Amino acid sequence: MRIAVVGGGPGGLYFAYLWKRRHPSDHVELFELGPADATWGFGVVFSDEALEFLRADDAETVDAIAPRMERWSGITLNLSGESVLIDGIGFSAIGRLDLLRLLQERARLVGANCRFETQVQSVDQLAGYDLIVAADGLNSLVRRSFEGDFGTSLSYLSNKFAWYGTTKRFDTLSQSFVATGLGSFNAHHYRYAPDMSTFLVECDVATWNRYGFGEKSVEESKAICERVFAAALDGHPLISNRSVWRNFPWIWNERWSFRNMVLIGDALHTAHYSIGSGTRLAIEDAIALARALEARPGDLPAALQAYEAARKPVVQKLVAASRRSAEWYERFPEHMTLDPLDFALGYITRSGRMDLARLAAMSPGFIARYASVKGTKPDPTQGASR
Ligand SMILES: Cc1cc2nc3c(=O)[nH]c(=O)nc-3n(C[C@H](O)[C@H](O)[C@H](O)COP(=O)(O)OP(=O)(O)OC[C@H]3O[C@@H](n4cnc5c(N)ncnc54)[C@H](O)[C@@H]3O)c2cc1C
């Protein structure tokens, strides 16, 4: 089989590696518009749960990535000068570029032909391939060329976000919520290397307008964010990498394939960064696609249908949780009026995936602090104002 993979992000690279490793006589060619040694963004975080899913399929790759990862347990919420630790929840993080380099090396080692700095300009260029795997991300050319056939929908959240890095090292995944005279900000921050952290700043559109960010350069916006988050940054600078303000896009496709083209990863669906699952979903899509193709050799339409049938319900569940999480962030200034413990309870139960029984088992320290300060056990309807 001759396969073209469009896009050398985590989804495309992982599919190219997986398929070529298992089917060495097939021709796998990957096209990536960027160079091999550059990318946008900083680190990506995986929950322990997400890594275990991947380990079940491919322990070798997890073992290759693991030594490069930062690990910790817990989420720290900073609000109104207080910190609340929600203990017991494990995470690992890695620089996006580090992850891509590891996957590039694995794809090359098994013989996939990765062509960097090679943009696919039109789907017509890919005539002659038996299968086109569209792993070309949010602005997928393949998807945009056949939007009606894929049943694409696209909408945007109203909050604005900018993805920075910083040299400040954080002990846990942390969230800082800061009220200023012109509105409220929130930052998601966590370390992904011994000396580097991701620092993602978010605010509602009213605050964004009051600060005049629409007219400010990347450097001017960064300087304002450094002042707003001076306490969290502790004298460290923010670092920009094309850190423009954006609105998070919701992408969904009713049909996952058309003719010999199939969508995976962000080209197919998005999951809000607050549940940190986009990279995991892209890699799991690649695994599901490879399985479906292997189960129906020689019958591409049936294999692509089987991929969608098996994978869609799983993705729909995660996307629904990520939408509930995003709705909480869309109203985060309102939640900031709660006292820090109720705020933390609302935060941790926001996506609907964490009920009180599970929280009590995972985070006994948080539950004990809550009970000792409040004199009562948490009531999810009190904190979970979502
Ligand atoms: C602010 C932010 C924070 C995030 N944080 C996390 C996190 O903590 N954890 C997590 O798991 N995920 C996170 N994500 C999501 C994650 O980055 C994406 O979900 C993930 O990268 C999707 O992988 P992908 O391979 O589908 O697409 P991408 O990583 O977007 O890769 C697509 C690739 O296709 C290439 N391409 C596009 N068009 C063409 C073309 N015509 N020809 C050739 N190449 C092309 C692009 O250059 C790109 O390299 C975050 C996303 C954002 C925006």
Care to give the gist of this entry?
The chain has helices at 10-22, 48-57, 59-65, 96-109, 141-145, 147-150, 205-210, 218-228, 230-233, 278-295, 300-330, 332-335, 340-348, 356-362, 364-374, 380-383, and strands spanning 2-6, 27-31, 43-47, 70-79, 82-95, 113-115, 131-134, 152-166, 173-180, 183-193, 196-203, 238-239, 246-253, 257-258, 261-263. It has 386 residues and is an alpha/beta fold.
Describe it.
Strands 3, 4, 5, 8, 9, 10, 11, 12 and 13 form a 9-stranded mixed beta sheet that branches. The protein is α/β, with parallel strands linked by helices and 386 residues long. It has 16 helices and 15 strands. Helix content is 41%, strand content 27%. It has a domain at 2-69 and 96-155 and 250-329: FAD/NAD(P)-binding domain. It starts with a strand and ends with a helix. It is globular. The protein has helices at residues 10-22, 48-57, 59-65, 96-109, 141-145, 147-150, 205-210, 218-228, 230-233, 278-295, 300-330, 332-335, 340-348, 356-362, 364-374, 380-383, and strands at 2-6, 27-31, 43-47, 70-79, 82-95, 113-115, 131-134, 152-166, 173-180, 183-193, 196-203, 238-239, 246-253, 257-258, 261-263. The longest helix is centred in the C-terminal third of the chain and has 31 residues, at 300-330. The mean pLDDT is 94. β14 and β15 form a beta hairpin. The protein binds flavin-adenine dinucleotide. Residues 6-12, 31-34, 44-45, 119-120, 135-138, 141, 163, 200, 265-267, 273, 276-280, 282 line the site of flavin-adenine dinucleotide.
